[in-house]
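Entry 12.
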Amino acid sequence: MASKRSLEEEVKVSKSTLDSLHEELQTLQAEAYQLDGIQKDKEESYRVLQYQCDAAEQESARLLQQNKSTEELLQQYKCQIQGFKLKHRKQQLKFENQLQQLIEQHKNLQSVFMPQNLPAEVESAENTKSQLLAAEQLKRAQLGRLEKELEMARSQKNPPETPETAETQSGEIDINESSNSFIPLTFSEV
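Predicted 3D structure (tokens):
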């Protein structure tokens, strides 16, 4: 009988141990399921982050290329503006020389002209002077517009295409736009 009780005690202990092992197994399975869910969430987060990282690298490369292109374009505009300024300065000097020559010619030939022709020659010289000054003002205005476009291109990193920039890009600037009506000074003989 004692051995029966002892066996019953052992069975109870074994059953109790089995029940506690069952509960521990269920707890471990629940933890494993939770850990598996966490692992899947982390893997999904990793894939999303990897995709975002790849996209960010591509965007960074694109922006670097765009920045390089913009810098090259800005350098090109700077060169065009310098060329335009130089050309404008040469034109200005040419206009000033022409004006000075006309003034000197007028002074030297003043005695040759008859008194009744003198007012017409003075008016002709003044017209020539005003035409030259108007042409100079037009070129200054064009230069100002071009400089404003350069500033806009610097600020926007994507300069707009305008007829003026198209002219300067092709290198063909019509310097006689407003001076087509230039009337050369002629002197009548005595």
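Annotation: Confidence is low (pLDDT under 50) at residues 170-190. Residues 2-181 form one domain.
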